[in-house]
User: Which sequence fits this backbone?
């Protein structure tokens, strides 16, 4: 079955860097667009970044001001999130999510799913 | 940017009751781009509804979605104990950002 497993979280000082990984299995990774989503403690879901299946087109949330970079290695079935200049407000559980798409009655519909279990990033001195 | 506003923030209900959750978009959106998720404590979100009204695989038929334009609704016909959770709506359009509503918590009364 489809599995997504995040790793790389931990405690980092403000201004530091961290690289998250999302190892996938159970589907043809190179055929699917992927996302990162985060959730600060006790808060809602916040979209972070997106990457197309071929790795060429990428988008990230404006609020990140270019500090985070999404990438992928289709030969390793793995998604990455490079996080630089980390701030206390980046403290969150970070989830990777596969894009869900389906065609019904000639219409393409979308969503996120499935999701990984998440990895906790804590930015603190 | 599409802003999604969910209401109420918290819904206190008893098992067996009907839950009605609202999601309002800041501008008209295509039904194709509206999804709902369920998140239980300590777990990742799970896709419930896509295309505003289509139920994802494995989701019980007591869950249903409806709406169009700017107003969308998630209905849980008869609440089971495992349905008490937080629910998020999401706009999945053709360009970023792919925003979420702030969530509605369905709690046991």
Assistant:
């Amino acid at each position: 079955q489809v599995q997504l497993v995040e790793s790389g979280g931990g405690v980092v000082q403000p201004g530091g860097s961290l690289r998250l990984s999302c190892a996938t299995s159970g589907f043809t990774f190179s055929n699917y667009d992927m996302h990162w989503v985060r959730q600060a403690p006790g808060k809602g879901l916040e979209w972070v970044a997106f990457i197309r299946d071929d790795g060429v087109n990428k988008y990230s949330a404006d609020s990140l001001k270019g500090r985070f970079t999404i990438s992928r290695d289709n030969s390793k079935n793995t998604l990455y999130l490079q996080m630089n200049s980390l701030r206390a407000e980046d403290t969150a559980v970070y989830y990777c999510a596969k894009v869900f798409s389906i065609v019904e009655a000639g219409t393409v519909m979308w969503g996120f799913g499935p999701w990984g279990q998440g990895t906790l990033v804590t930015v603190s001195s | 940017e599409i802003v999604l506003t969910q209401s109420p923030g918290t819904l206190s209900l008893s098992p067996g009751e009907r839950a009605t959750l609202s999601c309002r978009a800041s501008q008209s959106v295509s039904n194709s781009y509206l999804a709902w998720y369920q998140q239980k404590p300590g777990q990742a979100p799970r896709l419930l509804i896509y295309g505003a009204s289509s139920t994802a695989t494995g989701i019980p038929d007591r869950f249903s979605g409806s709406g169009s334009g700017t107003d969308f609704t998630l209905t849980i016909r008869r609440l089971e104990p495992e349905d008490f959770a937080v629910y998020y709506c999401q706009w999945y359009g053709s360009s970023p950002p792919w925003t979420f509503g702030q969530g509605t918590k369905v709690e046991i009364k």
Observations:
- Chain B has a mean pLDDT of 95.
- The first strand of chain B starts at residue 4 and ends at 7.
